[in-house]
Amino acid sequence: MTIAAILVSLILQQVYAPADFTQVAGSSLKARYDAGIAQGRAGTDETFWIAYRFPVRSGVRITTWDNGTNISSTVSSDGIEWVQEPGVQRVAIFLLTGKMDRTIQRTRLINLDQNFRVHDRRVYWLGEPSADESLSLLTGLIKDSPQRLTSSLTNYMTLHSSPDVAARLLELARTATNPSEVRRNAIYWLGQEVSRAAGEELARLSTDPDTEVQKQAVQAISRRNADEAIPALIRVAKEHPALAVRKQAIIWLGQKQDPRVLDFFEQMLKSK
């Protein structure tokens, strides 16, 4: 490309600030998503962004910069707390979508309180839906998106301020028609949830016919608090019919500094 062509390209480059985003109308988030896709496909960009703000659950900090995202708790493991500025953190999900096939090519979280602009691609803005609307949309997108993106989309679900997050993850994890990758990702993020119902479902999923899903469930169980994780892992290590899954449970038990684990290992050694 000649210098002149490069200069022309730079001059013609489109830059969009949030005030320049295309506002999409519709009676629901799903309706606005479909309308945004239609408008993007009618435009000239080969790829475009679909974006909307979602309610972020308390106790989470989301910082975006360059090409990365940092998601962290407001309280560290050593008890230091970062007090958030007054007001609710404003975060949006951005979905880079292909014009030809409507497939999501990339996902991003953007902190809307930061000063940013978007180059070259239009942004179709879907507004600020409720957490439940957002969770419903993400559940559908996870099932239809490339497998390499399912983990990030599932992670985004856990950031929502909604009591239904665990139920949505359970739905993804136990639906047999979902691809194994979707189910594994759902189980992984389910392990981060703290509800009792999630813990009980993980124990049931450890008997799933798919060995890889079983191993992922065991790993997720291991992340729960000791009083839930250790008895469940010991039960899997003792009783599970698949040797690979029993070994997985034993590996995770080996990382627990708990007298119950030592007692179990001692019993195993005596039974040899």
Draw up the topology in text.
Elements: H1 3-12, E1 15-16, E2 22-23, H2 29-42, E3 47-54, E4 60-65, E5 68-73, E6 91-98, E7 104-111, E8 118-119, E9 123-125, H3 131-144, H4 147-158, H5 165-174, H6 180-190, H7 196-205, H8 211-222, H9 226-239, H10 243-253, H11 259-270
Parallel strand pairs: 2-9, 3-9
Antiparallel strand pairs: 1-8, 3-6, 4-5, 6-7
Helix pairs in contact: 3-4, 4-6, 5-6, 5-7, 6-8, 7-8, 8-10, 9-10
How would you summarize this macromolecular structure in one to three sentences?
By secondary structure, this protein is of the alpha/beta class.
The total beta strand count reads 9
Query: What count of structural domains?
Result: 2
Which structural class best describes the helix and strand composition?
alpha/beta
Succession of helices and strands: HEEHEEEEEEEHHHHHHHHH
The radius of gyration over CA amounts to 23 Å
Q: N- to C-terminal separation? A: 73 Å
Strand content: 15-25%
Protein described:
The protein is of the alpha/beta class. It folds into two domains: 14-130, no CATH class; 163-272, Leucine-rich Repeat Variant (Alpha Horseshoe), CATH 1.25.10. The protein is built from eleven helices and nine strands. The chain has a five-stranded mixed β-sheet, covered by helices on one side. Strands 1-8 form a two-stranded antiparallel ribbon. It has a two-stranded antiparallel ribbon with strand order 4-5. Strand 6 and strand 7 form a beta hairpin. The longest helix is centred in the first third of the chain and has 14 residues, at 29-42. The protein is elongated and about 75 Å long. The model has no long low-confidence stretch (mean pLDDT 84).
